[in-house]
Amino acid sequence: MTNAERALWNVMRAGHSTAKWRRQQPIGPYIADFVCQEARLIVEADGGQHSPEADAKRTAFLDRAGYRVIRFWNNDILANLEGVLIQIGEALAAAPSPTSARQRAAKPAYPPPQGERFAGPDSSPLEGEDSAACSRSEVAKLGEGATT
Q1: How far apart are the first and last CA of the chain?
Q2: What pTM does this model have?
């Protein structure tokens, strides 16, 4: 670890925020300096050895993987650690809530909107019915004609 990475890690580990950070985390073919998985945020500490072309390729891959990448030069971290921490805090605050996004993705709209019926993975059209959904009135009419 560089001196800048060490300084940043010491503050992150000491609980600068409620976010949980991992350092030197493999993601695909790359190793991210610092990652907050909950916020899908990566913080990179860049020194003189970084090339803009390689960084652009790396950032594009990480973006496609669903991460937001923010970069700081090592000398900025060492000279203005408080300012860097403020920017990281702002990035964390701007990150979408992972719980709410996960809940929205996993939860079907129920009850289904009027005029539609829920089509689960095992549902199939009724005999003689095409795959179009029945309205509630159509379902009621079917139920009236049923015998028990």
Answers
A1: 75
A2: 0.63
Q: Which amino acid type is present at position 25?
A: Q
- Helices (DSSP H) in 19-127: which residue ranges? 52-64, 74-79, 81-94, 98-106
CA 22 to chain centre: 16
| 8 Å CB contact between 38 and 52 | no
pLDDT tens string 6-31:
999 999 888 777 889 999 999 999 99
Q: What pLDDT digit, counting tens, does each position of 69-117 carry?
A: 999 999 999 999 999 999 999 999 887 655 544 444 554 444 444 554 5
AA identity, residue 43: V
Full strand arrangement of the beta sheet holding 22-27: 22-27, 30-36, 41-46, 68-73
d(CA 110, CA 35): 35
- Rounded to an integer, what distance in angstroms lies between the CA atom of residue 90 and that of residue 69? 13
Query: Inter-axis angle of helices 81-94 and 3-13, to 10 degrees?
Result: 60
Neighbours of 33 (CB within 10 A): 22
Within its chain, how far is the Cα of 72 from the centroid? 22
- Asked if residue 26 has a cis previous peptide bond (ω within 30° of 0), the answer is no
